[in-house]
Here is the input.
Amino acid sequence: MSVFMLLIGLAILIYMTVKGINIIISAVVASTFVALTSGQDIIEAMTGTYMQGFTGYFATYFLLFLLGAIFGKVMAETGAAEAIAEWVMRIIGPKGAVMAVVLACAIMTYGGVSLFVVGFAVYPLAVSLFRNADLPRRFIPAALVFGSVTFTMFLPGSPEIQNIMPTEFFGTTPYSGFWIGMIASLFNFALGTFFLHLLIRKAVNRGEKFEKYDSDIETNEENKKKLPNIFLALLPVVIVVAGMVTYSQIFEANTAAILALLGAIVIACLTMFKFINGFWDVLGKGSNDAIVAICNTSAVIAFGKVAALTTGFTQIVETVLEIPGPPLLSMAICINLIAGLTGSASGGLGISLPILSPIYLNMGIDPGALHRVSVMSSDGLASLPHNGYIVTTIRNISHETFKRAYPAVALMAVVLTMCATALAVVLFTIFT
Here is the structure.
């Protein structure tokens, strides 16, 4: 019964989120339900356990969220994100429309640019390329998601929060599990590229063509915003990647990512200041975005803290730990399930790692393997329909319906990502 009531609590959180109810309100309601039905003291659960989970995550990762959001705003406001996207698409050309979209997203997300900034920056250019190539536009969300939250997200060295969080629990660096992580990422890229092109080719063979929407904005080339030189646009991205390589050898991962992003922001502002319209406004908008993003994630983490004290949660973890096969497999399944239930990769890691990390470290498993598998396994079921980025990409950015766009998105972000995770589990089990 305790497991059933916990699942109802999770269902409440998912249902309210999918319905568009604020995630903080949803998490409080779901946490209250879980606390009441599991016999916890409701006052202690909400003012103690819940708030400790919320403030603990906020305090640990606020600066990372803040600098990441500001960096994304600076890259968007200066036109650097759009310049990078145009550069990639100009090199590859209309015949490579799909891969141009994917690679433009990948370069920016691996360089630390916010997912949402990438989506909004690349989408108009993706529409132009798909129009010129006469490809079905319902596959644009899949291309955006594939380039943003799959191979590039769990690529070793990524400054994204999912690759930073495990360092705290395993004593690792963002580059841990490097070689097998690279192999799994390349496998995911190759598999995704093949199937995305296959889906589009089949749709074209059935007679599908590009469809014009009323929401499309026709760009007048003469009035188009002047963009920075591609070298200036790419420089901050290079600074982030180089900073991660350098600082991670000296500092712990969270500090390394903060320093790398700070350096990139300073360089971007110095080299592209003339493209910024209202410097302090840009910083303010980035700060507001950061507060919203980290509060939303902290709310999910806090819900997980309340859920983790229930008998049902303990029973689920114990059941997963008894799954036959290599220990990495059970860890991957557990993290994937929790990330899927919360609709958040970072939320899934924040809930599962404090509980699972000591268990698997005590088994003597290589910390680098634990780090890389945990990052990859948080990236599969987290992309179910209630994921915030998936909803935003399909509905708000691409103006599509889930019926038309989500099947391809699910294949790219859920199915193939889990295939890559399975490969990583096999390789780590054999070679570590």
